[in-house]
């Protein structure tokens, strides 16, 4: 006989179970992960809380305002109103691709008929490009030409590298706001405008030093580009006076060299011209020396020269666009007045100032001297003319543009609001405020922020 009392006290399986299967088998669950930190735990709870919407909106009455509200600050780097900005216009040098091997000894064996480039000094990096004038030590190694890897244009990686360089320049460190625009085309652009703010602290790095900074120079060599830096202002975009050098700027010729061809002294005159443009000779003295070699040349030589003068690529389009925007324009030349006036007529310029050659009225030939009553158009005179033309038209210097290529242009390039050394001599490229070595003078319009469509509209209406 079974004891009923004992059977009632014995536990049964049903009594051992709780109302929750999970609680019953808690010991079989894996241990909780302790890899989360307190921020992640609170963040997940906040997300769950914000995702709950206790109100079921009426689709007939609720409309999306288009405004997104958030408890987070998405404005990464707010800047005070009026913070200075700098504009960098980056030009890819498509006309001068850099060979991936700088020395034949480091190059693979060339194919039959292929000519590898000889060692050379990069244009604009030294006062001379003549290897014979350098010490016999081998030149410093050049940076690797990255455009051969990432594309012959201003690539995204090129821009990224540029922005990294900019952020490494300010001292002490400060986060920058940046933006960019492709000025010629959106895909594979040749010209890109980058705006960044704030600029480096001038107590540590002035704007003039920034323009010549070795990191930017190396960036240009690596990516085969040129960088023009300007302080952003309304006067950067809206100028009113443009002055140009003539020889090797608006025209591709050196006029005095062309005259020398008539009498067979081209070599002598060309050598003096080159040294004068590089700043190796006093301009006024060298001009008188060259002019003395022209004694006896017929006075009508300038009419004959017009047929051999080649107007520089893009000069007509540039001047037409500037004219449409209301610019006053001048050619200030160390050449000679008859051709300067002819060129001004061809391009629609308002002023033409150059040197005057003395003519023998009896023989109608050049005497080999300059007219004494007329000033020599040297560096100081060009700068003076820039200032006087600007004052005559009530134009502040900040709204002026000067373009030239020789040492006698440097003073006016530094005086102007924007001075551009266009395909200039090596010394001039080193000393000028900015430099461009493009194929067409139209590139200068990009420095004002004009896009390709803007330029096409200006030039088409001018025709």
TrEMBL record:
One of its GO terms (biological process) is L-serine biosynthetic process. Its EC number is 3.1.3.3. Its cofactor is Mg(2+). NCBIfam families: HAD-SF-IB (TIGR01488), serB (TIGR00338). GO terms for molecular function: L-phosphoserine phosphatase activity; magnesium ion binding. Pathway: Amino-acid biosynthesis; L-serine biosynthesis; L-serine from 3-phospho-D-glycerate: step 3/3. GO terms for cellular component: cytoplasm. It comes from the Eukaryota. It comes from Penicillium frequentans. CDD domains: HAD_PSP (cd07500). Residues 1-24, 98-144 are annotated as: Disordered. This is phosphoserine phosphatase. Belongs to the HAD-like hydrolase superfamily. SerB family. The active site is at 245 (nucleophile), 247 (proton donor). Keywords: Amino-acid biosynthesis, Hydrolase, Magnesium, Metal-binding, Serine biosynthesis.
């Amino acid at each position: 006989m079974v004891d009923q009392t004992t059977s009632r006290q014995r536990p049964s399986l049903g009594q051992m179970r709780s109302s929750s299967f999970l609680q019953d088998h808690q010991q079989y669950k894996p241990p909780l992960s302790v890899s989360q930190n307190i921020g992640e735990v609170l963040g997940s709870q906040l997300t769950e809380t914000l995702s709950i919407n206790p109100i079921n909106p009426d689709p007939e009455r609720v409309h999306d305002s288009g405004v997104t509200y958030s408890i987070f600050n998405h404005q990464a780097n707010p800047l005070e109103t009026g913070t200075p900005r700098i504009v960098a216009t980056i030009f890819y040098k498509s006309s001068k691709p850099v060979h991936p091997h700088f020395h034949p000894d480091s190059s693979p064996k060339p194919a039959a008929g292929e000519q590898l480039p000889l060692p050379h000094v990069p244009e604009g990096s030294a006062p001379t490009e003549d290897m014979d004038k350098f010490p016999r030590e081998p030149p410093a190694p050049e940076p690797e030409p990255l455009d051969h890897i990432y594309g012959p244009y201003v690539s995204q990686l090129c821009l990224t590298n540029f922005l990294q360089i900019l952020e490494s320049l300010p001292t002490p460190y400060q986060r920058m706001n940046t933006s960019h625009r492709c000025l010629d085309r959106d895909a594979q652009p040749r010209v890109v405008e980058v705006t960044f703010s704030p600029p480096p602290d001038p107590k540590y790095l002035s704007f003039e030093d920034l323009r010549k900074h070795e990191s930017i120079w190396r960036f240009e060599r690596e990516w085969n580009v040129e960088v023009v830096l300007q302080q952003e202002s309304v006067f950067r975009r809206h100028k009113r006076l443009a002055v140009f050098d003539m020889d090797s700027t608006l025209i591709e010729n050196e006029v005095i060299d062309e005259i020398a061809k008539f009498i067979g002294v081209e070599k002598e005159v060309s050598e003096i011209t080159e040294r004068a443009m590089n700043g190796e000779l006093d301009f006024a003295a060298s001009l008188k020396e060259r002019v003395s070699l022209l004694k006896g040349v017929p006075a009508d030589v300038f009419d004959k020269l017009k047929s051999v003068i080649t107007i520089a690529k893009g000069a007509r389009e540039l001047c037409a666009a500037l004219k449409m925007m209301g610019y006053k324009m001048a050619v200030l030349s160390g050449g000679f007045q008859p051709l300067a006036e002819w060129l001004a007529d061809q391009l629609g310029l308002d002023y033409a100032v150059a040197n005057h050659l003395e003519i023998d009225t009896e023989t109608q030939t050049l005497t080999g001297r300059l007219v004494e009553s007329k000033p020599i158009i040297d560096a100081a005179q060009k700068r003076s003319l820039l200032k006087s033309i600007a004052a005559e038209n009530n134009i502040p210097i900040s709204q002026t543009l000067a373009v030239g290529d020789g040492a006698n242009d440097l003073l006016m390039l530094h005086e102007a609001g924007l001075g551009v050394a266009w395909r200039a001599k090596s010394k001039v490229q080193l000393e000028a405020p900015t430099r461009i070595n493009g194929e067409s003078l139209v590139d200068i319009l990009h420095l004002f922020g004009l896009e390709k469509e803007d330029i096409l509209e200006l030039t088409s209406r001018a025709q």
